[in-house]
Amino acid sequence: MKVLAEGKGELLAWMSPDEGRKWMRENKPRALMDKRTTMKEAVQRYINDGDYFAMGGFGHIRLSMEGIYEMIRQRRRNMIMAGKTSVHDVDILIGGGVVDRIECAYAHGHELRGLSPAGRRATESGRVKVVAELSNAAFQWRFKAASMGLPWFPARIMMGTDTFNYSSSKIVEDPYTGKPITLIPACYPDVAFIHVHRCDKYGNCQIDGTTIEDIELSRAAKRLIITTEKIIPHEDIIDHPDRTAIPHFVVDAVVESRYGSHPGNMPDLYYSDEEHMAEWLKLSRSDEGVQEYMDKYVFGVENQAEYIELIGGEEKMKYLWRLEHLQVPMEAPWRR
Amino acid sequence: MEYNLTELMACVASRELENKKSIFVGTGLPIIATMLAQQLHAPDLLIVFEAGGIGPKIPTIPISVGDSRTFYKAVIAASMDYAMGMAQAGLVDYGFLGAAQIDKYGNLNTTVIGDHDNPKVRLPGSGGANDVGSLCTRTIILMRHDKLRFVNKLDYLTTPGYLTGPGAREAAGLPAETGPYRVITQLGVMGFDEETKEMMLLRVHPGVTVEEVVENTSFKLIIPDDVGVTEPPTEEELRLLREEIDPSGIVIGK
User: Fold this and answer.
1) Is residue B25 part of a domain?
2) Is residue B192 part of a domain?
3) For residue A332, which residues of chain B lie inside 8 Å, CB to CB?
4) Which of B51, B84, B135 sits opposite A58 (nearest CB)?
């Protein structure tokens, strides 16, 4: 196959298919094992400085925020973030000093809320480096290639652009059509969090709503920590096997994390907390403000229960449930 | 009836959408325009969100293209692989995009102002934009119109328009018969010349002159003899926008 062009972005978290098979063969549990643990232990055991890290969900949807707060409390450093539509997750990790490199499809922004002051300041000052660019489709097809044990996945995207030039992809002549096609390299993140609605103690998970790229990511990650709103009996899983989005044999740890996506959205359970987002977006305009936020919401609490109390407790979560179910009007305090 | 420029752009964009077609939508102005089209002339417009929400009845403006509003009463809550694969397979007719910079061939920058490795302003990046611009049949760009945004040379080419001109998309390997279709700004509506693939003024908004559009464009815009004038928003369009679609004024303002 003739290589027509090569992106100059850093090739990160790639393994050859045989290395990938070896990892999966030697590390992923086939048997049903009780994988329940605490957030503290999961972070201690599975997340290392310098790791390539991916978060499930969609930047401010279905996040393991409790996991992110614990990473900051345990002072993980020099990590590379998969910026696969990273929004509040990467912003808080940058603010917390955890991430210093990003492979970027989407970061430095808060979608409808505007740009992210903390993320932008870090990248514009050089504290955080964008080491490769790509598109959203390319990112999830990186995971898909890994999930299938392939070296790359072909797609008709990024051609002719700087997004390709700064990526780790290659363009080749497709032997079937004779036309150029982009080969997107597999990505095996060192570690990933995925937050789900419910799972059993073995890590068989159900997700309500869109799965975004989590089915692909769950099968690509070298180590996968599931955080869950609720742990349910195994029988409830096997009574409805069509509902299983992530099966136990790709899961390394299970942590119960009620309201764990706050201030992000958890479909059907709670909408995003726009008041809290506005507070972060305001405080994160300065490094001092970021520190103030971290002192209050991350270092000032011992665990998730204390954090939820601090952000307004059950009353706030009840309001976010009603907002999710369209029973109260939407507000956008960050517009003020 | 009085209206602001965001309302005008939403109305103009919504009128470009055809019934019984599909569209890839981003949040903000594109959502507003799409919801408006659905409530007026295009009830059977199939909405596709990149995170996997397909065919929803959007109840209120989503904050994110992946939040729960994007699959409210949808026909399928799928995945990004599904949505992007669907576009690559030819099932998505339109795509809405925004940009910080655009050139005469409709190429877009949403990544960086200044040097990539030493940025003056770091923007979010491609997100799904490169995919939408590569794979949808017709893309519609919504953005502000001034000399710093309508540039001769992009600081960074995030999303393909017609690249370097006629035949360039096909030569690069992008799907046939795709590319930018309209550029809608606060000043007017642009299209692309069939021969040269260069941007061409089609209509100016009420009260805007052709000279004003030219003055706010750094590259040479094709000006045909018969530049039209946009129809102002109707009372019904404005009522829907203000009372039904964005009652809190999150996108259109108050």
Assistant:
1) yes
2) no
3) 248, 250
4) B51
What pLDDT does A1 receive? 85
SS3 letters for chain B? CCCCHHHHHHHHHHHCCCCCCEEECCCCHHHHHHHHHHHCCCCCCEEECCCCEECCCCCCCCCCCCCHHHHCCCCEECEHHHHHHHHHCCCCCEEEECCCEECCCCCEECCEEEECCEEEEECCCCCCHHHHHHHCCEEEEECCCCCCCECCCCCCCCECCCCCCCCHHHHHCCCCCCEEEEEECCCEEEEECCCCCCEEEEEECCCCCHHHHHHCCCCCCECCCCCEECCCCCHHHHHHHHHHHCCCCCCCCC
pLDDT at B254 over 80: no
Residue A335 has a pLDDT of 86
- Report residue B174's pLDDT band, with 50, 70 and 90 as the boundaries: very high
Confidence of residue B1 (pLDDT cuts 50, 70, 90): confident
Q: Which of residues 195-224 of B touch A (CB under 8 A)?
A: none
* Predicted pLDDT of residue A244: 98
Question: Structure pTM?
Answer: 0.97
Q: Any bridge partners for residue A133, and if so which?
A: A104
Residue B144 lies in domain: 5-184+232-245
Q: Which amino acid is at A93?
A: L
**Residue A112: its chain B contacts at CB < 8 A?**
27-28, 61-64, 250-251
Domain ranges of chain A: 16-138+187-335
The reported pLDDT for the residue numbered A327 is 98
Q: Which residues of B form the catalytic set?
A: 50
Give CA–CA dist A310/A290, Å, rounded: 17
Q: Are residues B25 and B31 in contact, defined by beta-carbon separation less than 8 angstroms? A: yes
For residue B155, the domain's CATH number is: 3.40.1080.10
Interchain pair B80, A182: CB under 8 A: no
How is residue A240 annotated by DSSP?
-
Residue B201 placed within a domain: no
Tell me the pLDDT tens digit for each residue of B99-155: 999 999 999 999 999 999 999 999 999 999 999 999 999 999 999 999 999 999 999
Split into its structural domains, chain B has a count of 1
Note whether A44 and A96 are within 8 A (CB). Answer: no
Q: Which residues between 230 and 269 in chain A have a beta carbon less than 8 angstroms from any beta carbon of chain B? A: 265, 267-268
Q: How many CB pairs under 8 A join A and B?
A: 212
In B80-109, the residues whose Cβ lies within 8 Å of chain A are 80-81, 84, 88, 107
Q: Which residue stretches of A61-148 are H helix?
A: 65-73, 88-95, 117-124, 136-147
Sort out which chain A residues have CB atoms less than 8 A from B251's CB and list them: 112
Partner residue opposite A157 with nearest CB, options B51, B135, B248: B135
The domain A16-138+187-335 is placed in CATH, from the list 3.40.1080.10, 3.10.50.40, 3.30.1060.10, 3.40.190.290, at 3.40.1080.10
Residue B38, domain member (yes or no):
yes
- Give A255-268 pLDDT, tens digit per residue: 999 999 999 999 99
What is the per-residue pLDDT for B123?
97
Residues A18-66: pLDDT tens digits? 999 999 999 999 999 999 999 999 999 999 999 999 999 999 999 999 9
